[in-house]
Amino acid sequence: MMEGSYEEFTWENFKRKFLAKYFSETARERYGEEFLKLHQG
């Protein structure tokens, strides 16, 4: 039987790991700022 660390699989854990691996914090900040500046037109 495998013994090891167990981490609860929740949406928050998944989202944190996914963003850390595929979308850096600086990119999130930059794209977040761009998103907030969008306007319809």
UniProtKB/TrEMBL annotation:
Q: Which organism is it from?
A: Trifolium medium
Protein name in the entry: Gag polyprotein
